[in-house]
Structure formats: structure tokens, C-alpha cells
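Possible race condition, two jobs.
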Amino acid sequence: MARYILVVDDDALMRRSLAFNLGQAGYRVSTAADAEDALGIARLELPDLVLLDIGLPGMDGLDALRQFKLQFNVPVIFLTARRRELDEVLGLELGADDYVSKPFDLDVLLAHVKAVLRRFEQPAPRQEPAAPLSVGDLTIDPAAHKVTVVGRAVDLSPREFDLLYTLALEPGRVIPVDDLLGRVWGAEFIGEPQVVYVHVRWLREKIEADPNHPERLLTVRGVGYKLEPRGT
């Protein structure tokens, strides 16, 4: 059976174009002009994927994303024309699975759609919980999903945690931005460095004594980032 995609965009021309082209690509498609109608459609038949415009009338895209994740836990790709990194990254932080900036090439959009659907249809392999990891006085417990700095618990989002853990696996080693994108967000995000920049900023606010003068999470300009042990 064809995969079912719900397109949510207040631009009628965009809705018609996406519905036609996704249909040509073999998907079943429903469309909605606002989030309220889209949530109602999803209650009638659960979509396999939602393409969600961030700039909607009434309930905006970020609020709609929360509802789609809370009520249905379906994958969501943001469609954004704002081109502000905060909109894009905030959407990802709140649980969006990907984003595509308008105007976009149809082949690019289809590639993102296929990648997200593929991730959701492949169950993650079972793995034994990893042992706690220490980098100086910073400790990461992957099994409990907990981080402490000098014994103080730090509350991290899932992406922040994954980014910190990836750096902590190779302390003192500079990891290029594209490598971080591939490991933490997936290969389809390579070439979108602002995702890493913003998460690094948020991480520093939580693990550094002075985020403006970091001593743990360091930038190696033009290359990437590294995590240095402190307090040892």
C-alpha cells in the first residue's frame, strides 16, 4: 500500500503542487491549509509522514509540531521560507525529524521524504547499554540519559545529549562539523552547519561556567569542535 503523506501549508498553489508531485512519485496525499484541519485529518487516518509549513495562520508550525508528536508521534518534516536558523533548529529541537527550506527542488524534497520514512520503518538494533563515560569532572551515563558536571546534574535535550556524548567518545580530538552532523543528525543534514552551531551554543550555556569563554567545549576555527577534560 502506498505511503500516506499529509501536506500542511496555507499556500494553495504549494499544496496543489506538492499533492500532484507526491502523487506522481507514488504517495497518497491529503492536504490542509491550517494546523487545526490537519490534526482533524490525522485523527481520521494516521499519516506516515507530515510535511508541515512553519508559518501557518492560527496555530503556527511549532505548536502544530508539538501536537503531532504528542497525539500521533508521526515523523514531521518542516517546510520553512523564513531562513532563520533559529526557526529551523528550534523545530528540530522540539522534535521535527528534518526540514527543507523554500524554495526547494522537488528531487531534494523527495530525497528527504524517503530518508525520513526509511528511518521510521527500520527498527533500531538492540544494543547493550553503554557504560558511564567521564571526561574530567563531566560524567555521561547513556543508559540513564544523565549528565553531571562537578557532581551537578545537567538537563539536556536528546540532541544536546547525543552531541555531547559523541564528542565525549573522543575527548581532546577535533571532530569536523560534517562528521558531527552525520553522526548525530544523519547524513541528510550534512551541509547544514547552523544546526551544530546552535546546539553547541545551547550546550555551552549548560556545561560551561562562562559560556562566552568556554573551557570544555572548544571551537577549532574552520575545522570543528572538541571536548577537553576539566577538573582533573
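Job #2 (started ~2 s after job #1):
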Amino acid sequence: MTISQLRAFHLVAEAQSFTGAARDAGLSQPTLSAQVKKLEAQYGVSLFNRRGRRLALTSTGQRLFQVTTRLFAAEAEAVALLAGTETLRRGHLRITADSATHVMPPLAQLRRHHGGVTFSLRIANSAEVLAAVLDHDADLGVAARRSPDPRLFSHPLKQDRLVLFVPRAHAWSRRRRVRVEELQGRDLVMREPGSVTREVFEARLAEAGIKPAALIDVQSREAVREAVLAGFGLGVVFASERGGDAAIHTLEVDGVDLTVAEYVVCREEHRRLPLVRAFLAAAREVDPGS
């Protein structure tokens, strides 16, 4: 077994594709394939289930990927220690977040300090964010949920709160606040189960003894907005996400605490990686309380 074989395996496991791994690493596909085949042959194991162009890790491959993740994370940490994070000039950060609003300010600050850094951003609900980080599909997650899983490191990012919103033609559009009791028997348009927006709002209503008439499930904030504008019910959104949308009117809800904390989440072994540390530093600059 050589470090080159382990690195080849790790690259392919990350990309879930020999072609993608070769492209990302600037290597030839035959070179990567040969290294992985040598590793499998030497130990008489199968590391990938090959189904056409699609790859899936075997149980042995999954365990080895956990080892190589720690190995190359330690390597990157050593490089960062010797070179200093000030020299961070390039890199790609994969982020899955429950809201673009919460993640963009620290990303913008990161780019100001390290202009060569690129990123990809996927929006999902909080449960999917944590799953993406655990499954190595994201380097960082931003979610309104702190997981007790010991494999995950969580760091506070900011505080936000939930507010209602209605169309401008709604009878409440001239009000700034409503009492939680006024939500009794009202239709609500909510994100799908797994969304912290939904979990928190439902829990606070239950604590107050309030039962809505109906809960309408949709899978994105854009769909929530469209359903509310179409008259299906009251919408719920983070206060920081309401923006300047002239078609909707937002209202505070009195009599219930709708504060929600947002967290940056990564795998425990990744918390000292240069890009992760740089993102956390940028988040603290944007909000010194984080």
C-alpha cells in the first residue's frame, strides 16, 4: 500500500466517479483506476460497487474513506500550520445551507480576504444539511440545528427569528404584529418536515395551545411564497430573508418566542482545515458575537 494508492482511492470516493476525480485532480483516469485496482488486488477487497459510470462505496470502502478523510485532513492541517492560513490563495469550499441569506455575508468576507477561493452552494432543509456534511457531500453546513452527533463540530453563526408573511391584499397587511392566539384555526403554508422553520413554529404553537386549520407542505421558500400569494394561507420565514419583496407584508408574532440560532457545522476532523478555519474567522468578523 502506498500513499498514492490511498490518495487515488480518496479522490474517487469524494467524487463518486473516476472521471470526476481525474478532472478535479488534474490526473488521467487510467492512472487513478490503476492505483485503486492495485490497492484492491493487494488486499483482496472490493472498495467500490461499479454500476456503469456510477460508483458506490462498499462497506469496506466506507470504512477506508473515514480513515483517508482523517489522514488527508491531518495532512492539510500540517500544511496550514507550516504555511500559515494567511497564505491561503486558492481552494474550493462545498457548502450546503438551509438559507442563502445566512451564509452569504461570511462567504463575501472570506472572498475579500482570499480572492482565489471558490465555493459551491446547495440549499436544503436542516436535516439534509447535516446529512450532507456527515456523508462528505459538503465541507461545511449552515443550519438552524445543532446535532448531538460526536462526529460533527458545531459553531454558532447568528441569531434570527421567525415571522409571518401575508399578501399585500390581506386583511392583516396594515398591521405590524399579531397575537399568537389569532393563529388559531388559520391555514399555514410551511416547509416540508425536516425544516427547522417548520419544527420551531409548530412546537411554539403547540406550547401555546394553538391549532391551525391546515398545514400545507411545500419544499422550498420560493414555493412557500407563491402558495401564500395564491391565498393558501399564512407563510412563515426567517426575518433576515424577508428582503424588499413588495408583494408581501411581514408581521411579528407576540406571545411566543420564535428566536432561532444558526450554526456552522462540519465534520470534527475537518474543523482545522484551512478553508473551514478561514470561513469561521470570516463569520466572526461579520458578527463578532458568533
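The chain has a mean pLDDT of 87.
Logs attached separately.
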